[in-house]
Amino acid sequence: MSHLFTPLPLRDVTLRNRVVVAPMWQYAGVGGMPTDWHLMHLGRFADGGAALVFQEATSVERRGCGTLGDVGIWDDSFVEPLSRLARIMRDNGAVPGIQIGHSGRKARMKTPMAGRGPLERTPGIPDWDDWEPIAPSPVPLKEGFEPPREMTTQDIDDVVSAFGAAAHRAARAGYQALEIHAGHGYLLHQFLSPLTNRRKDRYGGTLENRTRIVLEVAEAVRESWPDHLPLFIRLSCVDNAGWELSDTISLVRELASLGVDVFDCSAGGLVGSPVRTGANLTYGYQVEYARAVRQATGVRTMAVGLLVHAQHAEQVVANGDSDLIAIAREALHNPNWPLDAALKLKVEDPYSLTAPTSGFWLRQRAAKIPGFVPSTQAP
């Protein structure tokens, strides 16, 4: 029996195994709308055998976009285009998931491929003024960036409402799992860290105040998101900027009481590296956070961070370090990673993980050629 390929029920949704494809920005949207690239990108992961495939962080407000290529969900016009993405994932055997977020002070940036610097105003961006970087405090992202505008309490209320409305639209579009992005230096994380949150009101200062907006967002999303569908949240469990693991554990307990089902345990992103100070970037370098949160609170967690080998992923789940493992760039390298892992772990009928069109031919080839070894398992 493989622990990695054991089903996991989450509310009324059952994941067929413990492999998740994490959300990955594609910078390929046009006017906030998804394109055929997104259809191909997400569909191949679903056909590859993952139980749950998350769409990239999708902006809940226009001003929450990080780059020109971000995808949005800030009004009803997005529901139908996004439904195509949910449908292709579901039709190919995966639970369709969506991550929703807000860039905050990381708005109006160049893509990573263009250097991640501040974007310059051009006539080609007619809604430039609507695309305003906002943050809990006017702390610039780094040298060369303009300080974001400090959010008013009305801005905060608007953002909380935008998250709730986005969750409602996601359900209408057919997604069956939703994740709130509260890590990696984006807006909600900016409130959590004392480095970027220097407010003197009820949203700044103490841990209780700095976590307030995240709890309000979780509550608004859970009220708008169907009760029978699971809710995830991504947290940077440590950030080398004042947010510690003990803070994460305290927040997780409160979020669990509000109906968050799974905690996606990442790190960093506010400043510098996601690697804990003094640690090496190695396989599974963030598993320790999923393990610590799970052990301290009893919640379900998802481990991320260079989980690239089948036996290692199997061990993480078997040891009880996390309930799910998420792959990202390794899925770009090998979209059929779950199928490949199932073959290596000798799971019964591994080709059932793929869509019937693929599985039929792969199963037939394996049956007809004694001792056949696929390319991913031979030199």
How would you describe what is shown here?
This protein has a single domain, classed as Aldolase class I (TIM Barrel). The protein is 34% helix and 14% strand. The chain has helices spanning 36-47, 79-91, 153-173, 187-192, 207-210, 212-224, 245-257, 287-297, 310-318, 329-333, 337-344, 356-368; strands at 8-10, 13-15, 19-21, 52-59, 95-101, 134-135, 149-150, 177-182, 231-236, 262-266, 300-303, 324-327. The chain has an 8-stranded parallel β-barrel with strand order 3-4-5-8-9-10-11-12, surrounded by 7 helices. It has a two-stranded antiparallel sheet with strand order 1-2. Helix 3 packs parallel to helix 6. The longest helix is centred in the middle third of the chain and has 21 residues, at 153-173.
Low-confidence stretches: none
Count of individual beta strands: 12
In the CATH hierarchy, what is the class? Alpha Beta
Largest sheet: 8 strands, parallel, barrel
The H/E string reads: EEEHEHEEEHEHHHEHEHEHEHHH
- Radius of gyration, in Å, reads 20 Å
Reported by name, the CATH topology is TIM Barrel
The share of residues in helices is 25-40%
CATH superfamily: Aldolase class I
Q: Compute the number of helices.
A: 12
User: Which structural class matches the secondary elements?
Assistant: alpha/beta
